[in-house]
Write a structure and sequence with these properties.
about 25% helix, Chorismate lyase, about 230 residues, homodimer, six-stranded antiparallel beta sheet, Arc Repressor Mutant, subunit A, 7 helices, DNA-binding
Chain lengths: ~230, ~230
DNA sequence: AAGTGGTCTAGACCACGTC
DNA sequence: ACGTGGTCTAGACCACTTT
């Protein structure tokens, strides 16, 4: 007979257990990779893989020479999948549809202009109502930098929403997302079929390609919307 | 002279470049690990490290036998750091303080009872107001399963908030987070020093240790709060 | 200066999923 | 059945940081 082969997952689980059982407490220095490799009878690379994973998950702090410590404040990271609205609606088992409410090039208001940069020509402004079944789901107001994505001017956004079109046709390198709550304005209330002042979940997103702004968008979700995730 | 040593980071950057330049388009099958290793003159493990990273980031879909493809819908993942409220406030450069508004064991209402499970004894109910400077920042209402964390009954929560105490003393294995928007109720408005119906950013969180519920909490942020992240 | 994690290599076997 | 990614090994050198 022989010992079972050690996998990095099993090592990850064991270290995880030692932390949650309090064998290794927050702030504690845990044994080095060589030592653990000897204890578990595996290669150092395997130990490294397991500990690196735990560090990425926020359970360990690792520093060369200083060694590996159990994280003082186990910062839990919640990851949200930013997917296409159509898929999000369909995953709820509802029928998705969308309607372009407006679509025109125009001079943006000052705050938008500031983000876009002065050198950018007039962007395309598109507003879309996304629907789940026959109910309003989300109201999208979007500015698109046509200097970066000129082909959007020729796209038929009634077939594919701007949301989806951009995901597939305009790659971006970085982005910023803000989540907040807002009271529905009169026009938002009308579009989302709710009452003035209703609490609206809002997502503001800016995406860049290199140093150029690609698009600036505000998503206003109909009351009752929840964004959820596991951690 | 000799070629520079290939690192997984440089390979990651190169593949990333080929995707954003459209050399490899969404849905395309890219060369296998062995082939790429030959092209770049490095070990297969190095290629694997780079491609695995890209897959984790959502740019590639990898499946045994089927090979590696450029993701059809580059699902961008936004990661939110769920940190301690005190640290969040202090990072804004403000002075943190908190006040325990109530603290007692009591029978929970039906929805909470349902999540806790019928077998659990009466939980501890704690409400806390977190402040930034002299302004209300967030109102926390929390149910704590004392069967799992009996020591919380002896904790002095006026020194360390329940939020922080639990992070350091009650490790959990899994959790669920929901983000939503709500109109302030009369009592919430009073506590957060705002008006009835103001839009409140709400976080609902349930955490488990194995199959036991550890705590159920609702965080109601004062108007103006934004949760932001980069992607 | 020295110790610890970070990474690369070359080779091997395995697991999964497509064919 | 077989091809592709997933992982392990043993050894080596390197980079960062603390002492």
């Amino acid at each position: 007979m022989s010992a079972a082969r050690i996998t990095w997952q099993s090592l990850h689980a064991e270290v995880s257990r030692r932390i949650s059982n309090g064998i290794w407490k927050p702030g504690d220095l845990i044994p080095g990779e060589v030592e653990l490799a000897a204890e578990f009878g595996c290669a150092r690379a395997t130990v490294n893989r397991a500990l690196r994973q735990l560090a990425e998950e926020g359970f360990l702090d690792r520093r060369r020479k200083a060694g590996t410590r159990v994280a003082l404040h186990p910062v839990r990271k919640a990851t949200l999948d930013i997917s296409i609205t159509r898929l999000e609606v369909e995953q709820k088992g509802l029928v998705y549809s969308h309607e372009i409410l407006s679509r025109k090039r125009k001079a943006p208001p000052a705050p938008i202009r500031k983000i876009l940069g002065a050198a950018v020509g007039n962007p395309l402004f598109v507003t879309t109502l996304h629907q789940a079944g026959t109910n309003p789901f989300m109201y999208e107001t979007r500015w698109i930098n046509t200097d970066v994505v000129p082909s959007v001017l020729k796209a038929d956004l009634t077939l594919i929403s701007a949301n989806e079109w951009l995901v597939e046709n305009a790659l971006f390198t970085t982005g910023e997302i803000k989540f907040s709550a807002a009271n529905a304005t009169e026009s938002e209330a009308k579009i989302l079929d709710t009452e003035l002042g209703a609490a609206i979940f809002v997502v503001d997103r800016i995406t860049w390609n290199g140093s150029d702004v690609v698009t600036i968008v505000r998503l206003a979700y109909a009351p009752g919307y929840e964004m959820s995730t596991k951690i």
